[in-house]
Write a structure and sequence with these properties.
By secondary structure, the chain is α+β, with helices and mostly antiparallel strands. It has helices at residues 2-12, 35-44, 58-68, 71-78, 92-98, 125-137, 162-175, 191-202, 206-219, 248-265, 268-285, 311-328, 331-347, 367-384, 387-403, 430-447, 450-463, 466-469, 476-486, 501-511, 564-576; strands at 47-53, 81-87, 105-109, 115-120, 187-188, 233-234, 245-247, 293-297, 304-309, 490-495, 518-523, 545-549. Among the domains are: 2-137, Glutaredoxin (3-Layer(aba) Sandwich); 491-576, Glutaredoxin (3-Layer(aba) Sandwich), CATH 3.40.30. The chain has a 4-stranded mixed beta sheet, sandwiched between helices. Strands 7-8-9 form a 3-stranded antiparallel beta sheet.
Length: 577
């Protein structure tokens, strides 16, 4: 069994990740993932074979048609296996556990729930049947090794060591495609990578600017000419083979990057790309009542729009809209984001500040929903100046601290579902740990609450521990979290009434400053003191004014919105010295 799997793994590790379209189960072939299914397997001494799929995945649909429906495959499965279909979009706890195997992922469990085999991507009957037969003959688990080193006890950390940082930077540098832009041969829309290089470019790194502009220009080819969405992956290095798979996280990443790049570089192609992505979200993925649909697929089978509405994807849409609004001032984006946040608080909120995934969750709650909504609420506070969103973001943070922080390591658990006998212990997914660490870092700056800073430092302690650093080499997201934790956010405050057009113009000028790690505040003195009133702003007799600040000093008052960037740049240069 192990020798067979070794040969198959070599053949199929390069199969592209993909997800499956809506499932036809009229014949009752598929069972559900449940304790009852695993109990039945134990009672009948059968294997459980799980197919993890998603709405937008062409290879899942192909495998359903050509492999799972194949009479010879079904003949092997009939007496020895219980086939289980899992829609990975609806079950983040299962999806994140097996995401390294791509979609479709196929997992075989023994009758006692022990993992035996994990298969990546599409398998034709020719290769699938031997795996099934070998499993029956030798059901001993395949040893896949350990992903990362041992966990360590909770530790407050503000960043990586110099040697490890240099190692990560060298790997990212080596991965850069000098001919086409982007990192690696398979081109992905990766938000942290784009954000990291935009940060470096804004700080004056000319090589970083050249690379991010080259990459963003090439990535425009991945925007679908028919619907205006961006494919999550191109299988050709020159960006010309985008898969027609449009998950929300890719739309958020691209919309945020192009909006910010437009504000930084003024390239009309970037503005046009941002406008098209905004139009796709507004016209195609916006659902009734304010929430957003999960994804769209136009590849094999053309499944179209997945009209399920998850808190996670709605939070991602809000974050993308707020980046677009900050850069362009498009009021429709702010209105859509506000309606989406209202929808999530009305339709997906949990007692205590958290969020559930769907209308009814089979498991959960899941970290992904609350952390994406928390980041969205904080972004909405930044972009609107409305204090109610900061209060909601803080409540979501408190829920995460109570529900998902693992006291032993300081990391964030992917799911709060109690451990089940057929699942290993709860996992800590890297990307969501990065998002949570970055959220608590910024929340601490907005609120002045030391406990949020401590949660962020414990989160960075996990991100700089062996389970992450020994398991992954390409880590721009960890570098981004480190950079933010070690530095103050760009801080600009508008002092003036919110019903004064001059205040509004100043706040729009502050939002246009193209740094994502930003603490923008609007102090209307009629509302009382700011949540983190760490600066004693003077009265300015000539009306509303903007102040750019560090923890030690502030600029002179600015009454011209066009003068704000120069003041912020001056302070950033001072901090860098």
């Amino acid at each position: 069994m192990k020798r067979l799997f070794g040969l198959l793994a070599a053949l199929f590790l390069a199969v592209p990740a993909a997800l499956a379209a809506p499932l036809d189960n009229k014949d009752g072939f598929w069972s559900e993932w449940s304790d009852a299914t695993f109990s039945r397997a134990a009672a009948e001494k059968k294997f459980v074979i799980v197919s993890l799929q998603s709405w937008w995945c062409p290879w899942c649909l192909v495998m359903n048609r050509e492999t799972w429906a194949n009479p010879k495959v079904r003949a092997v499965l009939k007496d020895q296996f219980i086939p289980v279909h899992v829609d990975q979009d609806s079950r983040p706890d299962i999806s994140q556990r097996y995401e390294r195997w791509g979609w479709p992922a196929t997992i075989i469990f023994g009758p006692d729930g022990t993992e035996i085999v994990k298969l990546r991507g599409f398998f034709s009957p020719q290769f699938f049947i031997p795996v099934l037969q070998a499993t029956i003959k030798d059901p001993s688990p395949v040893d896949y090794g350990t992903l990362g080193g041992p966990e360590r006890e909770r530790k407050l950390v503000t960043g990586l060591g110099d040697a490890k940082r240099a190692e990560i930077l060298a790997f990212i540098d080596k991965a850069y495609d000098t001919a086409n832009g982007g990192w690696g041969r398979t081109k992905l829309v990766d938000g942290p990578t784009l954000a990291w290089f935009l940060d470096r470019a804004k700080a004056g790194d000319k090589e970083a600017e050249s690379r991010i502009r080259h990459s963003l220009t090439g990535m425009i080819a991945m925007i679908d000419p028919e619907v205006g969405a961006i494919g999550q992956v191109s299988l050709k290095p020159d960006w010309t083979a985008p898969a027609r798979e449009f998950p929300m996280f890719a739309q958020q990443a691209a919309l945020s990057a192009y909006a910010r790049a437009w504000a930084m570089f003024g390239d009309p192609d970037y503005r046009a790309a941002a406008d098209r992505l905004f139009g796709f979200l507004k016209n195609t993925l916006a659902g009734p009542g304010g929430g957003f649909y999960a994804s769209m697929g136009l590849a094999e089978g053309q499944p179209g729009v997945d009209k399920r509405q998850y808190a996670r994807e709605t939070g991602q849409a809000i974050q993308g809209f707020m980046a677009y609004y900050d850069a362009t001032g498009n009021r429709e984006a702010l209105a859509l984001a506000t309606a989406a946040a209202d929808w999530a608080l009305r339709e997906r909120s949990l007692p205590g500040g958290g969020f559930r995934h769907a209308e009814r969750d089979a498991g959960g709650p899941y970290l992904a929903d609350t952390v994406e909504m928390a980041a969205a609420l904080l972004a909405l506070h930044r972009s609107s100046g409305d204090r109610k969103w900061l209060a909601a973001a803080a409540a979501a943070g408190e829920f995460m601290a109570r529900t998902f922080v693992e006291p032993r390591t300081g990391g964030f658990l992917a799911s709060a579902t109690p451990e089940a006998p057929h699942l290993p212990r709860p996992i800590k997914q890297r990307e969501d740990n990065v998002t949570a660490t970055r959220f608590f870092t910024l929340l601490a700056a907005y609120t002045g609450q030391a406990q949020y800073r401590e949660i962020a430092e414990a989160g960075m302690g996990y991100l700089t521990s062996p389970p992450v650093l020994d398991a992954f080499a390409f880590l721009p997201d960890v570098l981004l979290a480190e950079e933010e934790l070690r530095n103050e956010p760009v801080h600009v405050t508008i002092v003036g009434p919110k019903d004064d057009a001059r205040s509004t113009a100043l706040y729009a000028g502050a939002l246009r400053y193209p740094m994502a790690y930003k603490r923008a505040e609007w102090w209307d003195k009629r509302e009382g003191r700011l949540a983190n009133h760490d600066v004693d702003y003077p009265d300015f007799p000539d009306g509303p004014a903007a102040f750019a600040c560090t923890r030690n000093y502030c600029s002179l008052p600015v009454s011209d919105p066009a003068a704000i960037p120069a003041q912020l740049d001056r302070l950033q240069r001072a901090l860098a010295r």
